[in-house]
Design a protein that fits this description.
Strand content: 15-25%
Shape: flat
Number of strands: 7
Order of helices and strands: HEHEEEHHEHEEH
Radius of gyration: 25 Å
Strand order of the largest sheet: 3-2-4
Number of helices: 6
Helix content: 40-55%
């Protein structure tokens, strides 16, 4: 979206007298529109959904798969996938023994034509038109600052990396899927995280 002189003046007025909505800083402020509402994200989000849907359409219509054993299995005492030849330190409990299978493509009737068929499907299904309409709406909302907040540059760039300010210490940043940063977790939660990490080290993916 083109940032016109009018938009820049409106931005300056929007920021005036405000502080960062996350950390409270009054320095180096900017207008931040959450990713879900940005025109680029709205556009790419619809494309992602459409692409995922077409992959399923293409799979059902043109492709054939077979299930093939990988040589790995899992069971009650060792629930992560590992090679059947793995020698365990203790006698394993084979209850619920399950062999791992993967899908292998054995036929593709339109090999090499996926991209062409995808774009034809976008046009025929009206998704291209929908994307343009939703992008236009998002641009109008973006220009009006309808969903915008004021952040300092530090918090803004953290947000672009999928991070948020920890609500407890308000100093460190955390991935948005977590409630707090690691340092602010209760000891019990810290122990759980470290236990999961140790389990990954004991059974690395390359050895499973």
């Amino acid at each position: 979206m083109k940032r016109t002189k009018e938009w820049k003046e409106k931005r300056a007025e929007f920021i005036k007298g405000k502080t960062c909505a996350w950390c409270g800083s009054a320095e180096r402020l900017c207008v931040h529109t959450p990713g879900d509402f940005s025109p680029a994200e709205v556009r790419s989000g619809i494309y992602r959904l459409a692409y995922s849907r077409f992959r399923e359409v293409y799979r059902q219509k043109y492709q054939k798969f077979e299930q093939v054993l990988t040589g790995k299995h899992r069971h009650k005492s060792h629930p992560t996938w590992h090679k059947a030849s793995t020698v365990h330190k203790a006698e394993p409990d084979h209850t619920g023994l399950e062999g791992q299978c993967i899908e292998v493509l054995v036929e593709d009737k339109e090999e090499g034509n996926f991209k062409k068929l995808y774009h034809e499907w976008l046009e025929e299904s009206g998704i291209e038109e929908l994307i343009e309409e939703e992008t236009r709406k998002a641009e109008e909302e973006y220009a009006s600052f309808e969903h915008a907040i004021v952040l300092c540059n530090r918090c803004h760039f953290a947000s672009l990396r999928g991070m948020e300010l920890c609500p407890v210490c308000k100093k460190k940043y955390k991935p948005s899927r977590y409630e707090t940063c690691f340092d602010c977790l209760p000891d019990e939660k810290k122990n759980e995280v470290m236990a999961r990490q140790k389990e990954k080290e004991d059974f690395p993916e390359s050895l499973e």
